[in-house]
Specification:
- There is one protein chain.
- The chain has helices at residues 27-37, 44-56, 59-75, 92-95, 110-117, 146-154, 176-190, 214-222; strands at 77-78, 85-86, 100-107, 124-128, 167-170, 195-198, 225-226.
- The protein is an alpha/beta fold.
- The chain has two domains: 23-75, RecR Domain 1 (Helicase, Ruva Protein, domain 3, Orthogonal Bundle), CATH 1.10.8.420; 85-226, Dna Topoisomerase Vi A Subunit, Chain: A, domain 2 (3-Layer(aba) Sandwich), CATH 3.40.1360.
- The strands form two sheets. It has a five-stranded mixed β-sheet with strand order 4-3-5-6-7. A two-stranded antiparallel sheet has the order 1-2.
- A hairpin with a 6-residue loop joins β1 and β2.
Length: 228
């Protein structure tokens, strides 16, 4: 199932709980079903199954789930340097003095950073764009953290230990939008005298980093190429 579940077909809904009609559920249960069905990939029927699972679970298990949801919103933030998800600022990667300050690997989303970090190959820093340039979707450089990335080269104090990186590795997804974003970044970074490389094309075109095996990711990092 893809896309936002709120636009699912009627096959994923039940007559008793259809939107806009009366519900046979108690009001708290209906609110839980509505909340769950608003999540990506969760249709009405799936939301009902999850709601009934919560109802049948011990109270402490439901409390644990509620606490986890509350804590993730209260304690997790974006790193002020690289925009990775973290509980501390800067994040543990940026704060690690053993990491190579001279090399920054740029990715689209925090989940891409996690996938690459699990290979154990890249020992430099990161920068998360929080998306990619997509004119058709109305996403411009101003909607991403591109300005913050470029500021790390315009002002060395924006980097851990005040070290200005000398190389940027573009680890964007090999899609049309990812390639367009990479070209834009390469142009801006070269104006600042920064060496720009990108992950080797061992990555499947049109794929997503989070679904690629660790071995393929490791080869892609090791075989990165300069963008001329």
């Amino acid at each position: 199932m893809s896309g936002n579940s709120r636009y699912n077909t009627k096959s994923d809904q039940t007559p008793g709980g259809a939107r806009g009609g009366s519900s046979a559920y108690p009001e708290p249960v209906e609110r839980l079903v509505e909340a769950l069905s608003s999540l990506p990939g969760i249709g009405r029927r799936t939301a009902e199954r999850l709601a009934f699972y919560v109802l049948k679970s011990p109270a402490d298990e439901a409390d644990h789930l509620a606490a986890a949801l509350r804590d993730v919103k209260r304690s997790v933030r974006h790193c002020g340097v690289c925009y990775n998800l973290t509980q501390t600022d800067p994040c543990p990667i940026c704060a690690d003095t053993q990491r190579d300050r001279a090399c920054v690997l740029v990715v689209e989303q925090p989940k891409d950073l996690i996938a690459l970090e699990q290979t154990g190959i890249h020992r430099g820093l990161y920068h998360v764009l929080m998306g990619r340039i997509s004119p058709l979707d109305g996403v411009t450089p101003a909607h991403l953290t591109i300005a913050d990335l470029l500021a790390r080269f315009d002002d060395a104090s924006r980097n851990p230990d005040g070290v200005r990186p000398s190389e940027v590795v573009l680890g964007l997804n090999p899609t049309l939008e990812g390639d367009g974003t990479a070209l834009y970044l390469a142009d801006e970074l070269k104006k600042r005298g920064v060496a720009v490389t990108r992950l080797a094309r061992g990555l499947p075109s049109g794929g997503q980093l989070e679904y690629v095996s660790k071995a393929v990711l490791a080869d892609a990092i090791a075989g990165r190429q300069r963008m001329d």
